[in-house]
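Propose amino acids for all 118 sites.
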């Protein structure tokens, strides 16, 4: 398990570590802002990196209020890229109490499952 700050500021080192220890599975807790196609290619090549992506809400305003302006769009872009590349990922986050019912039971699963999250 790799946590931060943001582990992907050292994504080359993450890939090297996964290459060196190919008998281990690396779960990277990330905000996904640094996921790009080149990194997806590396992750596919090594085959032992999965992602726990931070997301607080399916609503951009709620998520951005906790994680910064534009963070929701960054996560959705990363989910789409990871999905297109067949990478394993799931949502990790602290769900605001006032949104828990609609988030956990209906909307967040639907919003993220369409992007391949499980």
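Proposal:
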């Amino acid at each position: 398990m790799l946590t931060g700050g943001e582990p992907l500021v050292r994504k080359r080192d993450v890939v090297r570590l996964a290459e060196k220890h190919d008998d281990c599975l690396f779960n990277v807790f990330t905000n996904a802002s640094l996921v790009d196609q080149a990194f997806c290619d590396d992750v596919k090549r090594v085959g032992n990196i999965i992602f726990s992506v931070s997301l607080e809400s399916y609503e951009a305003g709620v998520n951005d209020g906790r994680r910064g302006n534009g963070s929701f769009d960054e996560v959705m872009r990363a989910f789409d890229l990871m999905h297109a590349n067949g990478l394993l990922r799931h949502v990790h986050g602290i769900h605001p109490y006032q949104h828990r019912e609609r988030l956990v039971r209906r909307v967040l699963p639907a919003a993220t499952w369409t992007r391949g999250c499980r």
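The chain has one domain: 7-113. The chain has a mean pLDDT of 83.
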